[in-house]
Amino acid sequence: MDHFIFASIFVFGAIIGSFLNVVVLRFDTGASISRGRSKCFSCGKTLSWYELVPIFSFLFQGGRCKGCRSKISWQYPAIEISGGLAALAAYLWALPGQGALSVASFALLAALLFLYIAITAYDLRHKIIPDEFSYGAAAVALALLGVEWAATGTLDFGRLAAGPALFAFFGFFWLVSKGTWMGLGDAKLALSIGWALGLSAGVASVLLSFWTGAAFAFAAMAIQKIRSRRGLGLKSEIPFGPFMIVGFLLSLLFRIDIQAILSFLAV
Ligand SMILES: [Zn+2]
After folding, report:
1. Residue 76 falls within a domain, yes or no?
2. Ligand 1 center to residue 69 CA distance, Å?
3. Are residues 39 and 135 in the same domain?
4. Are 117 and 81 in contact (CB under 8 A)?
5. C-alpha 101 – ligand 1 centre gap (Å)
6. Cβ of 253: how many Cβ atoms within 10 Å?
7. Residue 164: CB partners within 8 Å, gap ≥ 6?
8. Are residues 86 and 18 in the same domain?
9. Using an 8 Å Cβ cutoff, are 181 and 174 in contact?
10. How close is the Cα of 118 to the center of ligand 1, in Å?
11. Is residue 117 part of a domain?
12. What's the CA-to-centroid distance between 47 and ligand 1, angstroms?
């Protein structure tokens, strides 16, 4: 029975993931998100239902369009698999039980993770985070805090303050750097991270995002240097939003809060 539930939840998440692919591609481009069948970008062939089955279509077609054999971006199956994993994670992290609050916490957690997938993909592709995504995530994280308040009977004031605190931190960077180090979109994203994690884990997730971001930037620079044999410097622009979400996930998955980081650094 458990296997059936897990499989169903993964499939549900993968289907949402294939919808997220459409959202990331079409949002803010003037194209309708709900109307218009998906087409191949190379030959314009309208895709039939069996070419739109999450993950499987990509596998069975060998990652190529059936019409023109041109390569399909690996972004599609990656987001579909992420969607499936996000739904599973939400199921495992949701409040236990079968009551309305458990269901609500599952739905909100899943929505938050789906939004973070969309933000990651959109930021990587367009180097910007739409307000609709970041404020949507903030509203969901706040609602999640409300559900947990209702379930436990106590409001976590520290967590309530953590959203605006992290927003102010990134907003400060945005202000003093005049938007060159951080975008205001990163500050808006930090709002939901603070509300979802609380202050201690939230600050830890920010540190983790700086470290993973720096590690990635150094690795990218090194690879570029080897490839081109002439240092290209720091020109290539790397969006920070995806690293904030990596930090969020690391903190959540491994329960890393600021105490865990301090005790790790003290060793
Ligand atoms: Zn094609």
Report:
1. yes
2. 6
3. no
4. no
5. 46
6. 10
7. 191, 194
8. yes
9. yes
10. 25
11. no
12. 9
- In degrees, rounded to 5, the angle at the alpha carbon of residue 170 between the alpha carbons of residues 78 and 132 is 50
Stated length of the chain:
267
Q: Are residues 159 and 215 in the same domain?
A: yes
User: Is residue 149 located within the same domain as residue 200?
Assistant: yes
Tell whether 228 and 159 lie within a shared domain.
Answer: yes
* 122 occurs within a structural domain: no
Classify the phi-psi angles of 127: left when phi > 0, otherwise alpha if psi is within -120 to 50, otherwise beta.
left
Q: What is the pLDDT of residues 143-174, one digit of tens each?
A: 999 999 999 999 999 999 999 999 999 999 99
Write the pLDDT tens digit of every residue in 89-142.
999 999 988 899 999 999 999 999 999 999 999 999 889 999 999 999 999 999
- Are 72 and 39 within 8 A, CB to CB? no
**Would you say residue 106 lies in a domain?**
no
Query: What SS3 state is found at 122?
Result: helix
The domain of 233 spans 128-267
Q: What share of the chain is helix, strand, coil (3-state, %, to 5)?
A: 70, 0, 30
Domain tally, the chain: 2
Measured in Å, residue 40 CA sits from the centre of ligand 1 at: 5
Pair 193, 66 in one domain: no
